[in-house]
């Protein structure tokens, strides 16, 4: 067993850590409190991250990206999450879709869609599944024709015509390129009759809607957008009928571990801030860290963050090796990391006492941010149900994973 990071991982961790310290941290609290989603979009940070290679971290070298593995994306995601969860999510969406670029696209699609994405320093991507009537239901635990995923794709000659509305989508309405799930055949289950289309933002019929206002990940957008008689050539179909199950199973093997790593970063930021505070804040005649009640809270935070990190790295390691159980380990890692981060933020707020909720300190923001991952990327309940279903199936997933 080897716990040593590679030279490449140390290199990217240093770049991301520096970006967090030099670029994000000095201005993040001000930006977080700007009143509208539009003014909070960190276009300048996206450009700066692009210049360092962070935006295209997952894109293969062949197409001008960096082409790191999933484990490295987790390491970088944690560092960016220490700075700001919303910004880490903006980047992570680009990393997730880099897997789609590499593995789900035809060579013709790769030539058409990857170069413009790489060339544009402000380009981000989005995956549009959720609609008003379909949230947990699209996670695949319940899969019937009556699931209310209404986005439709109707074949017309050499085109598909798409109609429907998506909501809550990360990078939605600000992204340049969309991966959109629509139903080709409404009489079938979503996994049988659904498909994934690649749709650039400037396709006629694509209409950006509004950004949801929210308490978490405030620098990232969650958009609602509409497709209105949006006509795309059949060659924009990326994952076809009967193959939708492959989206999560085969083409997004690291997505849960990557998401878990970003929220782990929030927990770490809260822990580091609380540790520092506890060394300096004096009550009862000594720094509060010398009161056992406070020390025990800090110990609990350190313990759960470290366990969560090891679980994320294990899940990423399995995903990088194409292990069939990587998906289950990713689901478990996401649930554990989001709970560990949320609990750490709660304890950090207690260590700070009244300062925990004051705007002079970042802990109230960490707590708001950590709350988002209890349900984003699949609610924790659904993630656990899916993991247990896989574990208990006939060829049950192997929890040792090696
Ligand atoms: C910050 C953020 C980013 C997001 N980004 C994206 C994105 O990029 N793309 C995208 O497509 N979507 C995105 N979403 C949507 C996200 O996938 C959904 O919010 C999530 O799947 C839950 O759906 P819901 O909010 O409708 O909750 P619901 O499905 O209404 O769930 C409500 C409650 O019921 C429980 N529940 C529901 N069904 C079951 C069941 N069968 N068994 C047991 N319990 C159940 C849930 O666990 C939860 O406790 C994002 C959401 C957030 C908050």
Task: Describe it.
It contains 14 helices and 10 strands. With 402 residues, it is α+β, with helices and mostly antiparallel strands. The protein folds into 3 domains: 7-119, Acyl-CoA dehydrogenase/oxidase, N-terminal domain (Butyryl-Coa Dehydrogenase, subunit A, domain 1); 125-242, Butyryl-CoA Dehydrogenase, subunit A, domain 2, CATH 2.40.110.10; 253-392, Butyryl-CoA Dehydrogenase, subunit A, domain 3, CATH 1.20.140. The protein has a 4-stranded mixed beta sheet with strand order 1-4-5-8. A 4-stranded antiparallel beta sheet has the order 2-3-7-6, with helices on one face. The protein has a two-stranded antiparallel sheet with strand order 9-10. A hairpin with a 2-residue loop joins β2 and β3 (159-170). The longest helix is centred in the C-terminal third of the chain and has 29 residues, at 292-320. The model has no long low-confidence stretch (mean pLDDT 96). Bound molecules: flavin-adenine dinucleotide.
**Shape call:** globular
The string of secondary-structure elements, in order, is HHHHHHHEEEEHEEEEHHEEHHHH
What is the CATH level 1 assignment of the largest domain?
Mainly Alpha
Overall average residue pLDDT: 96
Q: What's the gyration radius in Å?
A: 21 Å
CATH 2nd-level architecture of the largest domain: Up-down Bundle
Could you give me the name of the CATH homologous superfamily of the largest domain? Butyryl-CoA Dehydrogenase, subunit A, domain 3
Number of strands: 10
Tell me roughly what share of residues is in helical segments: 40-55%
Low-confidence stretches: none
Overall structural domain count: 3
